[in-house]
């Protein structure tokens, strides 16, 4: 679960980065370049030696745009052309290119020509007189110096960059101190040969043995790199074109070579980090492009040509591939200061320190909460045991409170049979005094007296049961009878409060297993509450409706009033002990109702009804008939 | 224990209506009142009573304050709206002071707390029946007077209102803008119709019927 969440996080982060990068890469306003004659901005034609699909070329053009963006509103408008000289080495191709360029830019005013790379420099040098006699030129070379005949041209500036081979080889020695040999893999084009020669000189200067691949085919080269000498490092310098003239994308070349090689591989271009090279101090083509762009802007505003050589440091970047460091057992701690390690195995702690801290904090909080809840649960269980002990007592106290409320009803109920007995006795006496008494009538009177006495004693029994402290005692009982009996207890009080009690209770017995006294108390509490709720209801409207009905394997009893209903606040705390809305209430009645129903595997719910009042419904499971 | 037949002058045909929802109580009370010589009818509810009792027969009502389907107080209100309201004796359990006060304020003749002693009940019933007789006499007299008064013409009622204010014939004539002789003619006819012969008797009739005198103009 946790891992999945992290992966999702990583994916989200990655896509965010990718989106950002994609936006950054979009050449600003490439397609919106206005028709040249209309713009007053300087217009610069940049000619690259290589084809536009090469990754470093893309980084170079990006660099031009970076420089352009820094130039503000007067930034040059860049035009890019690509010689693709490695693949089109035939001299006639250069002629075609020249024609194409001439036609294409016939109606353009060009303020500066920037040939980049040795092939482009050679081309520009050749066609300068014919195409751009009076247009200033900035020759730029990122690998090796600008040739002398180019620099000698009129109104021509030059910019070259230190090759950086020396620095690059120094970092190789730092990483692999036992290195003795540098095996260079390079293509067969003229440029690459020259480059290889430069590199060879640098290797020798660094005190290492230079060696190159003897194979002229890709398969042979791969065989060779798989059996490199023990202390060698493979330096991939190029090799775009194989012996059959087909072009191998550099990334693919690097991938194949470095994965086959039995020794570490390095390259000079930083953009290749990730293809299988170890990394080190490398040339960052975005920086190269930016610097050429900046110098171009300078050249536009300068009268006199200048010749400049950029130190390698200006365009260098130090990056490593963590996977290769691992493969060649290089301890990251040994890397030179200022390094950037990419492609690390997603180390959670390193890459997601912040997220991890947050998650960790969350876990701690969660654990603490769980611990607290567990503790609370134990405390509650203990309290429950305690409360079960005190439940009987509480229920008893509550019943006494209810009965105190109903004392009027006791007196009233007893008054009825007592009055009857008295009147009967008086009538008999009167009849006998006046000698009008017949035996039949006297017997009738005595029978009524006895039955009224029985009624009185029943009333006393009923109330005494409610007043006695009493353990839970479950028996099969008729819940409908319990409801009716409870309403009898309440009847007098209801009349005194001008509350009409409407009962819809079937005569057919409905048997549940339960404690008659406690269930009676539930009813009494609910009806007393219902009546209390109607204190502000006009007397004519005060009505409590009690319904009892069998529904499936349960019986539902509802008590509805016409009071103001339950507020959400009260609703939520209804069954909590000591929750009361009455100024003189203890708040134990509904808690006892709930506990009693829990003890009977029953449920209780409260809600508001259509008449504006509240309805309490409880259910009890029916007794299973054996 | 006294027997009412000897000491109480009863209107002939008076009936004691007992309204109580408890059958044993009704029966015992009916038995006691019957033994004491009263004619008794019993009713299980206020509705039952309203449906069956004869409005013009003299009598009284013994009413339980707590009745299902409308309290005894509600029934009292209905009874009071009759032409000849029967006096009511309320019976109640204890502790219903507020309702007792209201019942008395609305004209209950007695308010007895259960269980009520037979003597007390019989005394109360006798008093209620006597009260009913007296009420009926007063109402009969008033009815007579009203009928006679209603025979007066509009002009005569105007003159009547002036006469009972103590004005002289001359002042009445000036107030009404007619001659003193005409006033004298009206006065004779008023005396004749109301079967009386003095201003004092006219004033009594005016008080009984609630006719206001005309305020003298300065």
Describe how the helices and strands are arranged:
The complex is a heterodimer of chains A (626) and B (218).
Chain A: H1 2-25, E1 43-48, H2 55-70, E2 77-82, H3 91-104, E3 112-116, H4 118-131, E4 137-141, H5 148-151, E5 156-161, H6 165-175, E6 181-185, H7 190-205, E7 209-212, H8 218-225, E8 232-236, H9 250-260, E9 265-267, E10 279-283, H10 285-300, E11 307-310, E12 316-321, H11 322-327, E13 340-342, H12 348-351, H13 353-405, H14 407-433, H15 439-467, E14 475-478, H16 479-496, E15 500-504, E16 511-514, H17 516-532, E17 543-551, E18 554-560, H18 568-573, H19 589-599, E19 603-608, E20 614-621
Parallel strand pairs in A: 1-2, 1-3, 3-4, 4-5, 5-11, 6-7, 6-8, 8-9, 12-13, 15-17
Antiparallel strand pairs in A: 10-12, 14-16, 17-18, 18-20, 19-20
Chain B: H1 4-7, E1 15-19, H2 23-35, E2 39-43, H3 46-52, E3 59-64, H4 72-80, E4 88-92, H5 97-105, E5 110-113, H6 118-149, H7 154-163, H8 169-176, H9 180-193, H10 199-209
């Amino acid at each position: 679960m946790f891992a999945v969440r992290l992966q999702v996080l990583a994916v989200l982060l990655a896509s965010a980065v990718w989106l950002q990068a994609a936006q950054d890469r979009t050449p600003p306003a490439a397609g919106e370049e206005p028709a040249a004659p209309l713009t007053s901005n300087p217009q610069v034609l940049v000619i690259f030696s290589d084809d536009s699909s090469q990754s470093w070329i893309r980084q170079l053009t990006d660099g031009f745009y970076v420089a352009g963006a820094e130039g503000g509103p007067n930034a040059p408008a860049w035009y890019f052309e690509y010689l693709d000289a490695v693949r089109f080495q035939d001299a006639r191709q250069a002629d075609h290119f020249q024609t194409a360029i001439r036609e294409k830019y016939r109606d353009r005013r060009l303020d500066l020509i920037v040939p980049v790379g040795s092939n482009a420099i050679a081309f520009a040098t050749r066609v300068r007189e014919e195409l751009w006699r009076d247009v200033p030129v900035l020759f730029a070379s990122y690998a090796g110096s600008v040739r002398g005949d180019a620099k000698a041209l009129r109104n021509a500036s030059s910019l070259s960059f230190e090759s950086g081979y020396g620095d690059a080889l120094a970092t190789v020695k730092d990483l692999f101190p036992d290195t003795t040999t540098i095996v260079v893999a390079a293509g067969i084009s003229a440029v690459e040969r020259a480059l290889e020669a430069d590199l060879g000189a640098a290797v020798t200067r660094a005190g290492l043995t230079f060696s190159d691949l003897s194979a002229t085919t890709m398969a042979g080269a791969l065989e060779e790199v798989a059996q490199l000498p023990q202390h060698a490092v493979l330096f991939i310098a190029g090799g775009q074109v194989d012996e059959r003239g087909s072009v191998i994308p550099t990334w693919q070349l690097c991938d194949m070579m470095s994965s086959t090689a039995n020794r570490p591989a390095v390259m000079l271009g930083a953009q290749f980090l990730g293809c299988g090279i170890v990394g080190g101090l490398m040339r960052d083509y975005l920086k190269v492009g930016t610097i050429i762009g900046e110098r171009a802007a300078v050249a536009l505003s300068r009268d006199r040509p200048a010749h400049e050589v950029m130190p390698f440091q200006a365009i260098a970047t130090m990056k490593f591939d963590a996977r290769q460091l691992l493969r060649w057992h290089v301890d990251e701690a040994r890397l030179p200061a200022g390094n950037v390690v990419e492609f690390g195995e997603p180390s959670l702690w390193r890459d997601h320190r912040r997220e991890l801290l947050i998650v960790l904090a969350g876990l701690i909080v969660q654990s603490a909460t769980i611990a607290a809840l567990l503790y609370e649960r134990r405390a509650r269980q203990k309290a429950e045991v305690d409360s079960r002990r005190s439940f009987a007592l509480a229920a008893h106290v509550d019943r006494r409170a209810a009965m105190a409320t109903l004392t009027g009803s006791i007196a009233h109920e007893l008054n009825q049979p007592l009055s009857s007995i008295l009147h009967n006795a008086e009538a008999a006496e009167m009849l006998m005094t006046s000698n009008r008494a017949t035996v039949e009538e006297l017997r009738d009177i005595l029978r009524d007296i006895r039955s009224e006495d029985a009624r009185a004693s029943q009333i006393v029994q009923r109330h005494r049961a409610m007043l006695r402290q009493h353990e839970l005692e479950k028996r099969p009982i008729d819940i409908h009878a319990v409801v009716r009996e409870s309403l009898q207890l309440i009847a007098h009080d209801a009349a005194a409060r001008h509350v009409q009690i409407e009962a819809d209770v079937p005569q057919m017995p409905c048997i549940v297993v339960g404690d008659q006294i406690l269930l009676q108390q539930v009813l009494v509490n609910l009806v007393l509450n219902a009546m209390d709720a109607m204190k502000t209801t006009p007397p004519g409207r005060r009505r409590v409706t009690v319904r009892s009905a069998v529904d499936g394997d349960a019986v539902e009893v509802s008590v509805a009033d016409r009071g103001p209903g339950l507020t959400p606040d009260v609703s939520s705390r209804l069954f909590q002990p000591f929750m009361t809305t009455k100024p003189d209430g203890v708040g134990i009645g509904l808690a006892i109702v709930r506990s009693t129903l829990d003890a009977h595997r029953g449920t209780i719910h409260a809600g508001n009804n259509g008449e504006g009042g509240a309805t309490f419904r409880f259910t009890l499971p029916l007794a299973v008939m054996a | 224990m006294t027997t009412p037949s000897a000491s109480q002058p009863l209107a002939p045909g008076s009936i004691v209506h007992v309204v109580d929802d408890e059958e044993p109580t009704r029966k015992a009370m009916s038995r006691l009142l019957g033994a004491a010589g009263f004619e008794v009818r019993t009713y299980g509810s206020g509705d039952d009573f309203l449906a069956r009792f004869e409005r013009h027969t003299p009598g009284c009502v013994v009413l339980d304050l707590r009745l299902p389907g409308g309290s005894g107080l509600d029934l009292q209100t209905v009874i009071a709206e009759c032409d000849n309201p029967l006096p009511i004796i309320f019976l109640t359990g204890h502790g219903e002071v507020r309702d007792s006060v209201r019942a008395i304020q609305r004209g209950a003749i007695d308010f007895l707390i259960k269980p009520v002693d037979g003597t007390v009940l019989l005394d109360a019933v006798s008093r209620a029946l006597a009260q009913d007789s007296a009420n009926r006499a007063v109402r009969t007299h008033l009815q007579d007077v009203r009928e006679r008064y209603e025979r007066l013409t509009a002009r005569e009622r105007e003159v009547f209102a002036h006469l009972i204010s103590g004005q002289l014939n001359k002042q009445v004539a000036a107030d009404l803008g007619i001659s003193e002789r005409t006033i004298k003619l009206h006065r004779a006819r008023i005396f004749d119709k109301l079967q009386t012969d003095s201003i004092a008797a006219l004033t009594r009739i005016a008080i009984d019927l609630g006719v206001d005198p005309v305020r003298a103009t300065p």
